[in-house]
Amino acid sequence: MTEASQTGTPSVSTIDDAAVRAHVAWRASRERELREPYGPLSPVALHWPTSRHEKLPGLPGEWWSANGMLFTQPVPGDTAVLTGEDVEPDGPTAIGVRDGRSRILGTFLPDGRDGSAAGPDHESAVAVEVVLRTGRYGVRPLDPQAATRTTFDGVPTFDYDPAWVLDVPVRWYDEPEAVTVGGARPGLVHHVEVFGEVDVVVAGQAATLALTGTLTAPVVVFSDEADGIAPWRTLQVTTPDGAFGDAVLGDVADEAAEVAIATSHTLRLDFNRAVNLPYAFTDFGTSAAPLAGNHLPFAVTAGEKSPR
Question: Is 307 in contact with 280 (CB distance < 8 Å)?
Fold first, then answer.
């Protein structure tokens, strides 16, 4: 584990060229992910349908919720049409998702938009994402032409610092603990499971961070005292040898990496890879907040800064 200095930050470590190159490659991958047409930069609204059959601003059809499902159907006069594998052309279409999850139902071409353009910089169709949060269905249009995406020029970050790569012992729980946390929007809660905990010590200041996510892909969602950051960030946890860090699920090697995570006695927290959750990029994210105790009482001057 990197030792802490007496100034509130980890001690300076020799920068390894290979580690820097790996970090640069990881940052490039992260930026590409953010720029995906229907990624976290594309939400332009978040609507909450009720039991009444109603139009939603900017969306085709009418929407309502009933009996634990969300419904939509076309209405006369609509010129935009929602299409998709699971969309009934004449309606009604019913869709359900698990609480805390989301799913893209279909896409539509807004009035006045040319659908003949092609290429990664000319996406035209708006996707309709259905979410279930705190037992309530939401509808979130994802527009590749949203200003938050078309004007995006990267996430500001702290400079890479190997001193913020910390190897810490982990205490796995015998059984996961169910915990309810808040969300990025008032009135929302999320139900998460805690699988274990790690202790982080910097300059004599200690804090315990709970591990959520999944047993084989744990994360820490945390807040800290740094300036210019979002209220909370998240960090994918790896083993000291990097197991799971950039894994693509489904490969044999990835399955081995998952096992390595769940059986490791030491985990790596590379705070250079602390990232913003979707709520930090637009006003329409519903990201889960950290557990009440997941606060570091010092400034983590590593990872992503606030994007706005």
Answer: yes
Is 23 exposed, middle or buried, given 0-12, 13-18 or 19+ CB atoms closer than 10 A?
A: buried
Q: Are 104 and 127 in contact (CB under 8 A)?
A: yes
- Which residue do the tokens 């035209």 mark? 124
Strand order in the sheet with 69-73: 54-55, 62-66, 69-73, 93-95
Tell me the pTM.
0.86
pLDDT in tens, 180-201: 999 999 999 999 999 999 999 9
- Helices and strands: H and E segment counts in the chain: 3, 14
Counting residues of the chain whose pLDDT is more than 70, the rounded percentage is 86
Where is 262: in which H helix or E strand? helix 252-263
Residues 6+ apart with CB under 8 A from 236: 217, 219, 244, 245, 273
For the four alpha carbons of 4, 9, 14 and 18, in that order, the dihedral sign comes to: positive
